[in-house]
Structures are given as C-alpha cells and as structure tokens.
C-alpha cells in the first residue's frame, strides 16, 4: 500500500515536471503556429485518458481565461483574443470524458462570451461550440453541468447572443426538456432551497426562467405544445411551493431568493400560457340563447329598443340550473362552492392581483415589462377587491342625506396590498353588513372567462369585464352610482332589490373619462324602475343610468327563504373601447379614405404636399372629436363586428343589424359635412398648443395601431408636436388652409364608403382581442395553480 502511494506521488511529480513553467503572458499573435499544435496533440492524447495531455490543456485554458478576464488585457483584435484554432477544438473539449477539463472548457467559453461583444458573437456563431455547450448542460457530472449552464447564461448576456441561442439553437426548448427530465427522475423534484452555491437543478431553472422572461414575440410559440404543458405543470408546482416556503421563510433564511423566484416563476407561467387555451369558450350564439332565449327576434328587439337606451329585466332567462351543462348552471356551481361562507377566506387567499392593462396597449410584452417583478402579487385593494357598505337612511332624513360608502379595510385604501390574514376578517365583515366585491373574475375563474368571451363576440367588442358581489341580508354595498359601460346583472344566489333612476336624455358616459356627479334629483321617485331580482333573472342596465341595490331582510318583502340568505350576483360589463364607438369607426373611415387616396392618386405627391395633407387629415380627426363631444350618436357602440343571427335572410348585407349600421354611418357623415367648423377646430388646436396640454390629445394615440407607414404611426405618439408644426407652418395663411380644409372635408364626406371601412375596423378589433385574450390566458393560468 505504501509503495503504491509512493508510485502515485512520483507519477504526479513527473507530470508536473512535464508542464512548462507558467508564463505571465500568452503570445496570441502566434497562437495558431505555436500553442495550437500543442493543444491539438494534447487533445488527441487526452482522448486516450493521458494525464499529462489533460494537464497541458488545462494550463493553456487557465492562462487564456486569465488573459481574457484581466481588466488590463491587451487591446487585440477579436480574432487574436479568440483564435480560430482554439475554437475548433472546443467542441471536443466540452464533451470529453474528463469532468474537470470539460468544466474548464465551459468556463473558458463563458469568459470569452463576456470579454467583449465581438468575442461573444464569435462564440455564438460557432454552431459546434454552442451545441457542445448545450450537451454539456445535460452532463451527468454536476461540476460540468453547472459550468456549462453558467456559460450559456454568459452568452445570453448580450442581446445578439441571447437571440441566436433562442432562434438558432432552441435553447429554451432544450432547457425545459432537461428541467422536466430532472423533475421526473428518481432524484426527485427541483428544490427551491438556495444553498451557499446553487446546484445544477437550480441553475437550469434559473437559466430557463431568464430565457422565457426575456423572449419577445414569436420565440415562445416555437416551443412544442406538449413540452409547454409539461413545463407549465412543473413551474406551477414550483410556484405553489414558493408560497409554502414563504410561510416559513424565517426558518430557511430565503427571503430575497423566494421573492425573486416567486415573481420570475409567475412571469414564466404567464408567458408560456398566453397563446394556450385553458378553457372552453361559449359560442356567441350559445350565449345569446342563454340570455335571450331561442327566439332570434327577441335579441333583435333588444338591440332595436333597449341596447344603450333603456333598462330591461329578463325574467328567469338563466334559471335553467337543473341542466348541469348549461352556461349559468356551470357558473353557479363553480362560484357556489368557492364563495360560500366556510371556504371564502381560503378562496380569497388563493387569488392574485390582476394589474390593469392600458386601453390602447396591443403589445403584451410591453405590458409585461411594466409589471416586471410584480406579476403574481397579492390582490390590491380597490383594483382587485373592495369590502364596502352603504348605510341606510330613514325616511325623515333621506332628502338631506348624502350616501357615502364605508370601507371595512380603511387602512388598505389607495390600492395597497391586502395581507393574507385579512381575508379571514372578510367573514366578520359579511356579518357586519359589508359587501365583498371582487373584480376581474374573467381572469380568475374559467367558467366566467368562457361566458365573457362569448358575450364579447356577441356584441362585437374586444372584451367583457366581470365582477362578483356577495352581500349579506338587509344590506347595501355600493352607493347609488352610474357606470361608463353597459352591464348585465346575473342573479346566481338569493334575491336583491334594484332601483334604477332615469338617465339624462343626452348623457352617455365614455370609458376612461372622468365621471361627473349624480343629478341633483337623484332621490326623486319619478320615472324610477324598481326590480326584485330573483335567482336566474338577468337585469340589463345601460351606461349612464344611476342605480343602487340592496338585499332583503324584511319578511314583507320576500316570498321565499332565498331572500333572507346571502345574495351573489355576477356583473358582466360590456366596455366599449374608444376605437369601437361610432366616433372611432369614423376616425378609421377617414384614415382608410386617406390611405386609398394616396395609393390611387392620379398625380404624384411630393413630400411637402404629403406633409400638408397629413396635417389637414389630423385636423379633420380633431374636428370629428369635437363633433362627438356634442353628439351622443358618435359615443354609442359600433356593432359592425357583432354577429348576425337572422336565419330569414340569405344575404348578410340585408341583415337588419348591418342596415342599421349603414344608416348610422350615413347620418354621421352628413353631420360632419354640415356641422364641421374650421374656426372651432383651429381654436382647439391653438389653445392646446398654448397650454402644452398633451393629456388632452391622448385619445389620438390608438390611431397609431391602424395600417400605415412607421413614420405616420410615430406622429400619433407625440400629437402635440404635430400640432405645433401645423401652427408654425400655417399661421400666416389661415384663409388658404381653411379653404383646403373645407375642400378635403367635402371630398371625404362625398367619397367615403361604408364597406371600405369594415375590413380595417375588424382588423383592429382582432388586434385588441388578441392582446386581451393573451392577458386572460396568462392570468387564468396563474389562478389555476390554486383553484
């Protein structure tokens, strides 16, 4: 035994004697003539497990790593910093059977990638090197796998490196497959317990999360569907585990890591789920029959007589709860088992915040950048949940009272995070007469999402909002108010009495505009509509109608035991975004008409003429806005994209709904032709520029989403600059501009065609629908982790 040890020490000493003495600098200018032949010979010998050769290779690699990582490295061309000869043998070294040599080779690749952008590009452009590195990531030896994983991360430090890894080498797919293999192995699940140094599993997880969360449009779609499902299942389980560990974070000392990994996991789950379908969406025709019945004429009558005009009680339309496959039966069963008194606190604790997405945001990745490191956060008060009640007034004091909502969680106002322990107190709040109002239910419950999707298609709008209200007996939640969107109130459990006051004749509030106060006569009884909503009933309330509701506790008011129980109703809000009002349709008509003119103009248009014409077109856009502020017709929802349901006509063009749309458009064009005022528009432009009020022009921003040149799109991002330029160029010849404006307006009104506008309108609608569908899919996927 002693002789064997002496022989081993002697052999090691002889190997050390073979290695040249370390030299302080490496002559890279002659690398291919001097060092490369030695490394190549050593690599060939190392394949036969020659220790001396391996030591020589390690010596060269360490020396080169020290040179590349030195802060004062010589300023040499990339070709000398990373010689081609060395690149050519790296694939062999990365996959050799010596773990320490393979790990050192991976470290060299990472160091070269971080050295400069040029060497990073050289590394990622070498297909054999990258493939060898990715194979090393899955190496059974932990040291090799960790070094390779770190090298992949180093390459992705540059945008070009990351994009090429994703685009050309399918790095996300390979990392996710490896992650799923690790999770399925006998070794067990990926651990979230961060040690002094991360293990291989954690490095692969971190790398996969970084690539997923920094990938742009198109890259995530390349991941095979089956792999995406497996990865989502794993990531959701890890996300759930992160919450369990958080409860004991004092024991583990993992506060910072848990916070980081939790939000990164949530973001990855959202991104992988955006283009996947996790729920069965009801067809628009199925939703129509569930609400209005089988008779198509009933829906047509609703559109003609009630839509955006007057409230309507639809008795028992949803009262087919015995049919387990019906829309409202599945909805009632789903919500009933979750929001009962015993399970309420647990249900609320499983919900996460649904951050609002900007109305004109059509890039889901831009939204994700805004909510970076906050996706998957606990619910916020006001944005996600409210616990509120409105005190009752006696008949003697009601004329002088001002209804004021009281919030149970006063300390959570101003959209603060709601702590999980507070949900237990919601049961106490219910007993004290408070209503629990949950927003964004279409992003939390798949049954609600299925109904909301079908309803949005029925009315030709991008999306439908959904809120749930749980109210105890003898209580009122929200004070009397009106909404800026039409609502369908679906009574799922219990009963509720509604009181709807008349609306001002020419009052139609719009989304995202400040809501004015209620009329001074809000307590007068004249013209009020009193409705007792029972289980299965649906109440339609157009936007702008003041309304309030309370549950019943007096035995004189109810006719069955349901009235003395809690009330739960679902409110479906059809939110008409600005582009899909009639004003929006008319803006699109002007845009389409102008694009058609430029395309088919018989005369060439120079840059100066084109610039002046663009300014006049934008001036006409402002004129449309000013007319819409005074004409309620332009504030109404455009139904061009709503689905026709008449089976009595053979031609879609003759459908009553489309005929009404054509008639409305003709009326609007006639109004523009007769009511346009150049002086009023010029005054608006002058005042806006003088005040520097960019906010007053925010309504123009969505116009950049229409089909046009990039330069034209950019103009709508800074409309104030456009108006300044207009005044600067035209202030000295206003009369000529007024004449040109009048001629353009007349030409537009005389030659625009309804049919030309519909395709562009529907194309824009699909863009809005896509973004909102991606948002819905992502948020639903996060909530299915717990629900």
Quick rundown:
Belongs to the ROX family. Helices cover 52% and strands 7% of the residues.
Structural features, described:
Oxygenase that can act as both a histone lysine demethylase and a ribosomal histidine hydroxylase. There is one protein chain. It is built from 30 helices and eleven strands. Helix 2 (35-46) packs across helix 3. It is globular and about 100 Å long. The protein has three domains: 2-169, Leucine-rich Repeat Variant (Alpha Horseshoe), CATH 1.25.10; 284-576, Jelly Rolls (Sandwich); 580-752, no CATH class. With 787 residues, it is an alpha+beta fold. The relative contact order is 0.07.
Key terms:
787 residues, alpha+beta, Leucine-rich Repeat Variant, Jelly Rolls, eight-stranded antiparallel sheet, three-stranded antiparallel sheet, 7% strand
């Amino acid at each position: 035994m002693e002789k064997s040890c002496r022989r081993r020490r002697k052999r090691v000493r002889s190997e050390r004697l073979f290695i040249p003495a370390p030299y302080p600098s490496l002559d890279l200018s002659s690398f291919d003539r001097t060092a490369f032949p030695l490394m190549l010979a050593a690599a060939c010998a190392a394949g036969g497990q020659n220790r001396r050769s391996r030591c020589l290779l390690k010596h060269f690699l360490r020396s080169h790593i020290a040179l590349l990582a030195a802060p004062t490295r010589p300023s040499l061309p990339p070709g000398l910093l990373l010689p081609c000869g060395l690149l050519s043998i790296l694939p062999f070294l990365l996959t050799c059977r010596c773990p320490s040599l393979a790990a050192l080779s991976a470290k060299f690749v990472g160091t070269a990638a971080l050295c400069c952008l040029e060497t990073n590009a050289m590394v990622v452009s070498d297909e054999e090197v990258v493939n060898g590195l990715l194979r090393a990531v899955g190496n059974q030896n932990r040291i090799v796998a960790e070094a390779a994983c770190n090298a992949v991360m180093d390459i992705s430090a540059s945008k070009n490196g990351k994009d090429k890894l994703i685009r050309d080498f399918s790095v996300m797919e390979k990392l996710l497959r490896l992650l799923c293999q690790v999770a399925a192995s006998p070794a067990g699940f990926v651990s979230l317990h961060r040690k002094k140094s991360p293990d291989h599993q954690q490095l692969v997880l971190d790398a996969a999360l970084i690539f997923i969360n920094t990938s742009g449009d198109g890259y995530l779609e390349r991941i095979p569907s089956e792999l995406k499902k497996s990865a989502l299942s794993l990531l959701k389980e890890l996300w759930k585990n992160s919450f369990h560990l958080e409860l004991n974070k004092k024991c583990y000392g993992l506060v910072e890591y848990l916070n980081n990994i939790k939000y990164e996991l949530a973001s990855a789950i959202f991104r992988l789920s955006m283009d996947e379908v996790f729920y069965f969406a009801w067809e628009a025709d199925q939703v129509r029959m569930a609400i209005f019945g089988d008779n198509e004429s009933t829906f047509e009558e609703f559109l003609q007589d009630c839509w955006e005009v007057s409230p309507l009680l639809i008795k028992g339309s949803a009262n087919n709860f015995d049919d387990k496959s019906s829309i409202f039966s599945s909805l009632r069963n789903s919500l009933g088992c979750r929001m009962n008194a015993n399970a309420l606190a647990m249900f609320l604790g499983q919900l996460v915040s649904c951050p609002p997405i900007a109305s004109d945001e059509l890039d889901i990745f831009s939204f994700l950048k805004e909510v970076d490191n906050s996706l998957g956060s606990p619910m916020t008060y006001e944005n996600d949940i409210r616990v509120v009640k409105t005190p009752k007034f006696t008949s003697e004091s009601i004329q002088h009272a001002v209804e004021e909502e009281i919030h149970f969680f006063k300390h959570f106002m101003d959209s603060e995070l709601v702590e999980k322990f507070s949900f237990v107190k919601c049961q106490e709040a219910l007993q004290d007469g408070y209503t629990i109002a949950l927003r964004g239910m279409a992003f939390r419950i798949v049954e609600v999402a299925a109904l909301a999707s079908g309803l949005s298609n029925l009315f030709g709008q991008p999306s439908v909002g959904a809120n749930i209200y749980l109210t105890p007996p003898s209580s009122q939640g929200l004070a009397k108010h009106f909404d800026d969107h039409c609502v369908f109130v679906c009574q799922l459990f219990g009963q509720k009495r509604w009181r709807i006051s008349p609306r001002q004749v020419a009052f139609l509030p719009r989304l995202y505009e400040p809501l004015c106060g209620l009329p001074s006569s809000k307590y007068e009884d004249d013209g009020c509509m009193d409705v007792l909503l029972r289980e299965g009933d649906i109440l339609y309330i157009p936007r702008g109608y003041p309304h309030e509701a309370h549950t019943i506790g007096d035995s004189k008011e109810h006719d069955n035991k349901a009235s003395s129980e809690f009330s739960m109703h679902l409110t479906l809000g059809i939110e008409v975004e600005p582009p899909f009002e009639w004003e929006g349709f008319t803006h699109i008509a002007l845009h389409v008409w102008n694009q058609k003119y430029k395309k088919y103009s018989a005369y060439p248009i120079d840059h100066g003429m084109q610039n002046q014409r663009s300014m006049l077109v934008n001036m006409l856009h402002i004129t449309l806005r000013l007319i819409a502020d005074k004409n309620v017709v332009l504030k109404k929802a455009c139904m061009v994209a709503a689905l026709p349901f008449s089976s009595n006509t053979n031609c879609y063009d003759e459908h009553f709904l489309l005929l009404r749309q054509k008639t409305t458009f003709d009326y609007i064009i006639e109004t523009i032709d007769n009511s346009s005022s150049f002086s009023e528009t010029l005054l608006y432009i002058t005042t806006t520029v003088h005040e520097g009020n960019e906010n007053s022009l925010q309504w123009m921003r969505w116009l950049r989403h229409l089909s046009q040149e990039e330069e034209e799109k950019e103009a709508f991002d800074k409309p104030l600059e456009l108006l300044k330029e207009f005044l600067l160029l035209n202030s000295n010849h206003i009369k000529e501009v007024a004449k040109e404006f009048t001629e353009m307006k007349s030409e537009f009104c005389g030659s625009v065609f309804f049919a030309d506008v519909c395709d562009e309108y529907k194309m824009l609608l699909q863009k809005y629908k896509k973004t909102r569908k991606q948002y819905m899919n992502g948020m639903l996927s996060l909530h299915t982790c717990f629900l």
